[in-house]
Structures are given as C-alpha cells and as structure tokens.
Design goal:
The protein is an alpha+beta fold and 162 residues long.
Length: 162
C-alpha cells in the first residue's frame, strides 16, 4: 500500500513537471520573435517599468522632438497594452509597408529610475519601432487598439488637423 502512495505522488509530480515545461515552451513560441526584435532590455522595461508615458512626437530643426507627454502609468488597459506589445501575434512579421522612411508620430516611453525605452509608431499606428532603431515591424494587428489608447490620452493628428 505504501508503494501506491509513492506512485501517486510520483505521477502527480511528473504531470506537474510536464505541464510546467509545456507552458514554458508555449510562452517561448509566443514571444520569441518579439524578444529578438525589441531585445531583452526593452522587453523587461515594457513588461514591468513603473512609469509609462504616451507621447505625441513632432520635429524641430530636422530632429524628432516630444510635442506632448502624458503619464499613463495607471491608465485603464495598460496591462493589456503591455501584453500586446510583447506578443508575436500582435505584429504582422511578413508584412512590409513600402512607403519610404516612416514618420514617427506617437511614442510610448517605458522607464524606471535608471533607464527607459521609447517605442514609436506612425500616425496610423500600422508601423512600430524602437526609437533610433532602423528595424521596423508592422503593428497593423494592434493598430486600432493603439489608436484607441492614444485617443483617450492625446489628441490624434486627424483630430488636430484643420
């Protein structure tokens, strides 16, 4: 009888171990491309930075500048935004927009006391990059959600144009 108890405990342990390994494999598969694209430091800041700011970008003298900055660290939906920005399915990896050099109109700055990173987006939110990075990805799958978030905190270009 004592062996039956050990067998049950052993079986439970191995099922739990298999579930944990399966979970890690699925999570890796769901985030491997975005981890390569953003980089580990950016992923860490996007997932856990205490300060998050929505930015409206402009240009002054040929240089990119911040026109408006709003702290959204406690905004409704921020947890979902972080998850979306860190999931491979939120981006169209094979889609390439060929419209020349993108104009970055909006940004999200994620930061803590010692470092920060800014993700930038085009006016239609269909392209994304890390500030000062030549790599660009299509954010078309989450463009509507990004537009909604920004419209709640910053006037969008179409709302401010004459």
């Amino acid at each position: 009888m004592a062996n039956n108890g050990k067998l049950v405990i052993g079986a439970i342990f191995f099922v739990a171990l298999a579930a944990a390994v399966s979970s890690m494999v699925v999570r890796y598969q769901a985030t491997r491309r975005i981890l390569q694209f953003w980089g580990t430091e950016t992923v860490a800041l996007v997932s856990a930075a205490p300060t998050v700011e929505a930015l409206r970008l402009g240009s002054a003298g040929g240089q990119q500048s911040v026109g408006e900055r709003v702290d959204i660290s406690h905004a409704r939906g921020l947890v979902h935004l972080r998850q979306a920005l860190l999931g491979d399915r939120s981006f169209a990896w094979d889609e390439r927009e060929e419209h020349g050099e993108p104009v970055w109109s909006y940004g999200l700055r994620f930061g803590d006391d010692s470092k920060s990173v800014t993700l930038v987006f085009t006016a239609d939110f269909r392209q994304a990059s890390r500030s000062y990075s030549p790599s660009i990805v299509s954010s078309a799958p989450i463009a509507k959600g990004l537009a909604k978030l920004f419209s709640e905190h910053i006037a969008l270009e179409s709302e401010t144009s004459p």
